[in-house]
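Hi everyone, sorry if this is the wrong subforum. Our group has a chain we'd like a structural model of before ordering constructs, and none of us has done structure prediction before. Sequence below.
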Amino acid sequence: MAPRSFWKGYLKLSLVTCPVAMSPAITGQEKVRFRTLNRRTGNPVVSRYIDEITRRPVDEEDEAKGYERGEKDYVILEDEELDAVALESTRTIDIDMFVPKASIGWIWYDSPHYLVPNDKVGEEAFAVIREAMAKNKVVGISRLVMYRRERAVLLDPRGKGIVLWTLRYGDEVRDEDDYFDNIDAGKSKREQLTLMKKFIEEHMSEWDPELMDDPVQDRLLKLIADKKKGRKTKVARPKQSAPKPDNVVNIMEALKASLRKK
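Answer:
Right subforum, don't worry. Here is the predicted structure as tokens:
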């Protein structure tokens, strides 16, 4: 059963508009979560905001958001004032432009959301927008207020729906040239590439989401189950091995050995 949508609004392309609903495409609910306890009493510990100067707890109704304009000098912003910013993009996804999907590098993709039509009347308009993007191999670009910030978003047709990706801000993505420019770009030897290609071909496989299972999560769940039953558990750290820097072997010999091992 699909979770309830956390956002409802409109998808707009020129004069074509349809109501839509959006839900996060990823979840963290399945993770094992811990609470901090008082070891002596076994009671949960709660956190509270403390005034930095007076060191006294702050009541919830006195909490406010502030922007620091100078040392210990803040401008207080009320929730209503924050909600009023960029109101036009809070409930309408107005597609501004289309770009080839392949032109946007993966590093700009942030968080995925599922976008679906929100009523039967709007399904036809939704389908036309989705199918036109899919046939032209393009994605739509828009702006939308999410999580209290206006963000650039990307609309990618997928199956019967659309995946809406929030995109990272320009100042969040570091320039790859700062890291890659100093790498020696010398060409690899033909024999090395031939062996590496053969190794890759022998290890090709179909993508399977089960590859993303978390074995640590499974061990945590087993540990908790044993604790519930009062069983004693042996704590053994997994052995970690790293290649020794003084044990560098010839690349060709290493590739040949890897293929023999296969």
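For your construct planning: The radius of gyration is 26 Å. The helical segments are 79-83, 123-136, 177-180, 190-202, 215-228, 251-261.
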